[in-house]
Model the fold of this input.
Amino acid sequence: MNEEIKANPSEAVTHEGQLAAENMATGVEEVPNVDIEGDYEASKAYSVSDVDRSSAGEVAAESATASKFEISQPEETTSQAQPTGNPNEFLDMAKGVNPRAGEGNASSDDLIDKAIEMGKPGK
Done:
């Protein structure tokens, strides 16, 4: 699909573009025809290298991306936590996450104990 460029000097961004558009409008320069589809098809030839067109490209890609270290296969493990219903186990786990919980003015253990006492029904 050939398209003709419509040269408009007022739309030119640069001075050289304005001069070229004026020359095309007056007939001093020939207005180029642009074959967009043909140019696009021709550009596809440049998107693939000669190495990639042969089997050497596949070999080169494999050697470039091959791991230099031995990779072990992961082993599948399963674990299941058994519910105990004992809140002290949760408190022990929380202490394991924050070992300095008892330091300072109001320790988080005190806050947890207060929250547990407030949460008991019947008082």
